[in-house]
């Protein structure tokens, strides 16, 4: 079949299945385990949410600094694959160790290292897209990656959920059930990394093969200067800074927000599992819709939908409302992430994809330093989780405004 993914496209898609298991764990089990550790240390619910937000901000700020540097280096001398391997190994080891130390401070320190390695691996992974598929198939392959990542991550998560929710009936302690959850996730992540590590070959690379660190810094500074001259790319990055910040803040803070307003733990976990299941067909649907409608229009629809989701979340205080929120997020999450990734890959030079995707991460995951930090700060300042969440609405509106301006500049 003409549209059937090739071997390298399948290998690339499989990594989404592996790494998505980790991020699902981050957004579900990890905040619950951190609350357990924080509770043992006498930390209040408000401070617990704030500390988690601050930790996420430290991790994303670190990626914002390291991402462009790693991306710039990866574009020369075919370093993309070995750097990707290094990030995966550090992330997998870190994930395995998360359940070893009982101190909440040690847990957060290891989590930061693991999350940074995970995020850096995604920068390199995203930048591989021009190497693994054609320009015409980027929307489709990007959407399939997110789609299969959502549903594939549910397999280890169901095992983990069974362990955590039924640890008493199978005669194991809660901390040991969590330890097993981290080890299972690490193994899954590593397993689905192997095909890409075996089959990937870097095609597009910078023709200048100088490999010095200072050369990479100089090239990065030059690229940043060049981006400001390409108004469509610069304005898209600015828009992405705001709207994807809102998306990632919702992802990072969903469980901890539900916990802070007193919702039942098992209900939160099952609702977020439903998000993953719903996201699978809708991510594929957005990939198909991109063949009939402009990618810009579909991204606009997703931003507007997320603005509504953020507004609804402000007053959330009942379990059924969280379930409704989970369904709505599942519908649009895959679309906005996949189409943003492929849209950016189309408008940048393929031979500098690592560097450009590193810069994208400053405006994306790195920018969520602001979202999670502001949510934590305003929650602590006002004593209201809803007030903290209201920040996300402002981010989405600003993202929509700048995105529409970027489209006009492109035309």
What is the arithmetic mean of pLDDT?
83
CATH T-level topology:
Growth Hormone, Chain: A
CATH class bucket: Mainly Alpha
* Largest β sheet strand count, sense and barrel closure: none
Task: Please count the beta strands (DSSP E, at least 2 residues each).
Answer: 0
Counting helices, strands and paired strands, the structural category is: mainly alpha
Distance between the termini: 34 Å
Portion in helices: over 70%
User: What is the CATH superfamily classification?
Assistant: MFS general substrate transporter like domains
> Which geometry do the CA atoms define?
globular
Spans of at least 5 consecutive residues whose pLDDT stays below 50 are none
Oligomer: single chain
What fraction of the residues are assigned to beta strands by DSSP? Answer: under 5%
Radius of gyration, CA atoms, in whole angstroms: 20 Å
Task: Count helical runs.
Answer: 18
Structural domain count: 1
Q: Architecture, CATH level 2?
A: Up-down Bundle
**Could you give the order of the helices and strands?**
HHHHHHHHHHHHHHHHHH
3D structure, described in words:
By secondary structure, the protein is mainly α. It has a single domain (7-410), classed as MFS general substrate transporter like domains (Growth Hormone, Chain: A, Up-down Bundle). It is 82% helix and 0% strand. It contains 18 helices and no strands. It has helices at 7-27, 29-40, 45-74, 80-97, 104-127, 129-132, 138-152, 154-165, 174-191, 194-199, 213-229, 231-260, 265-292, 295-314, 319-347, 353-363, 368-382, 385-410. It is globular and about 55 Å long. The model has no long low-confidence stretch (mean pLDDT 83).
């Amino acid at each position: 079949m003409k549209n059937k993914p090739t071997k390298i496209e399948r290998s690339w898609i499989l990594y989404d299945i592996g790494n998505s298991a980790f991020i699902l764990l981050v957004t579900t089990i990890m905040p619950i385990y951190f609350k357990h550790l924080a509770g043992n240390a006498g930390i209040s619910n408000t401070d617990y949410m704030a500390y988690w937000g601050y930790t996420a901000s430290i991790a994303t700020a670190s990626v914002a600094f390291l991402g462009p540097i790693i991306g710039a280096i990866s574009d020369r001398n075919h370093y993309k694959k070995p750097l990707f391997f290094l990030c995966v190994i550090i992330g997998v080891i870190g994930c395995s160790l998360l359940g070893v130390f009982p101190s909440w401070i040690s847990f957060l320190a290891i989590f930061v290292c693991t999350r940074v390695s995970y995020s850096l691996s995604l920068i390199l992974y995203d930048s591989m897209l021009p190497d693994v598929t054609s320009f015409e198939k980027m929307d489709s392959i990007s959407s399939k990656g997110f789609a299969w990542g959502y549903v594939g991550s549910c397999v280890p998560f169901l095992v983990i959920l069974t362990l955590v929710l039924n640890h008493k009936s199978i005669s194991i302690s809660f901390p040991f059930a969590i330890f097993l959850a981290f080890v299972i996730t690490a193994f899954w992540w590593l397993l689905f990394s192997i095909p890409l590590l075996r089959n990937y070959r870097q095609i597009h690379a910078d023709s200048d093969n100088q490999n010095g660190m200072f050369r990479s810094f100089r090239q990065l500074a030059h690229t940043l200067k060049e981006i400001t001259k390409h108004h469509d790319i610069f304005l898209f990055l600015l828009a992405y800074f705001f709207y994807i910040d809102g998306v990632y803040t919702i992802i990072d803070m969903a469980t901890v927000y539900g916990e802070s307003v007193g919702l039942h733990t098992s209900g939160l976990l099952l609702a977020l599992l439903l998000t993953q299941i719903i996201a699978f067909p809708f991510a594929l649907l957005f990939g198909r819709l991109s063949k009939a409608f402009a990618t810009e229009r579909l991204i606009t629809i997703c931003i507007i939908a997320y603005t509504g989701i953020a507004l609804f979340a402000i007053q959330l205080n009942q379990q059924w409302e969280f379930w409704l929120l989970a369904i709505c997020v599942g519908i649009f999450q895959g679309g906005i992430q996949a189409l943003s990734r492929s849209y950016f890959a189309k408008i940048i030079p393929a031979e500098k994809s690592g560097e450009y995707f590193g810069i994208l991460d400053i405006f994306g995951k790195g920018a969520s330093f602001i979202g999670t930090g502001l949510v934590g700060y305003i929650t602590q300042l006002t004593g209201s989780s809803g007030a903290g969440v209201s920040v996300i609405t402002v981010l989405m509106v600003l993202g929509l405004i700048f995105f529409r301006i970027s489209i006009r500049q492109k035309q």
